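Observation: inputs received (chain + adenosine monophosphate).
Thought: call the complex predictor directly.
Action: predict_structure
Action Input:
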Amino acid sequence: MSDRSNSENNTDSAANDIAQAEAPKTKKAAALAAAQIADVMSPETIVVDEPPPKPNYPQYRVKPGERISLADIDPNASEHYTKKQHVEEELEHLRDRLGDLQERLYAENQRSLLIVLQAMDTGGKDGTIKHVFQGINPQGCQVWSFKKPSDEEASHDFLWRYHQRSPRRGMITIFNRSHYEDVLVVRVKQLVPEDVWRKRYHAINDFEQMLTFNNIGVIKFFLHISKDEQKRRLQSRLDNPDKHWKFSSNDIKERLFWDDYQIAFEEAINNCSTAYAPWYVVPANNKWYRNLVIARTIVDTLEAMNPQYPGAETGLENIVIPN
Ligand code: AMP
Ligand code: MG
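Observation:
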């Protein structure tokens, strides 16, 4: 062995000693921080002014370690509501609330919120963005839609393009598709081998934890529709000329892999619903109920974050604006 490799080995073993001595302390600090964040990211009860009669949206949160089966979750669920008119007023109220909370988050300029939207094709990601976020000041909100990676994106590690677009302080950022595509379409279409995508669950959990340690809250929604509902929505895109632009024959090809996608979603949700970055499986056959659940969940999460306006400069009362 050369001197050089010897000294490298020594450095390595010294580094290992330090790492081992630090490991319990680091782990404890990380666990404590994650637990504190978890309280905020998973508020147990509705804290909005006028809670619905049965505040049960937390039932859609997947608890860490729980193994859900999508087949057991009814995509038609809508509590006691049966039509859009029943929820319109509450949705309006939630949108106002969201607008206020977003303004406070922006003014506070310390923390931010990342909202991940995933679904089968036609699942309603675009509709959710349009209907839930319409009251928000565009200056404080960003939407990123992720498609097939460009050559440049594909030549980096899989998280590179998502990390770059994670929210800066004060912002609400929506990922329309996300880093989860790298364990969904990539898995189903076998774009990389299993031993590559399987390690990604771990990488995703670490990535999301790192974001939360940097004051970025992370909540994730799977908009759960049935296969029949997808057929109806694809058909209506074919039947309605105004919707033709939304129709992609690729969606028909992907539909053939429905069962594989359901399994991939289940496994992603089961492996990556953590206390600090929870997944919510939202019944989404009824668009209005989907919007209601998502709006409630986001408002409740922001209420728990409780962003504050920063203090004013001192002596404002003595300031006279010159002519
Ligand atoms: P759309 O959201 O309908 O515009 O479609 C975007 C397409 O990009 C979908 O077919 C996704 O599956 C695909 N896509 C998104 N992310 C990735 C990725 N990381 N690797 C491969 N395909 C992706
Ligand atoms: Mg599409």
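Thought: report the result.
Final Answer: The two ends are 80 Å apart (CA to CA). Strands lie at 112-119, 141-145, 172-176, 216-224, 279-283.
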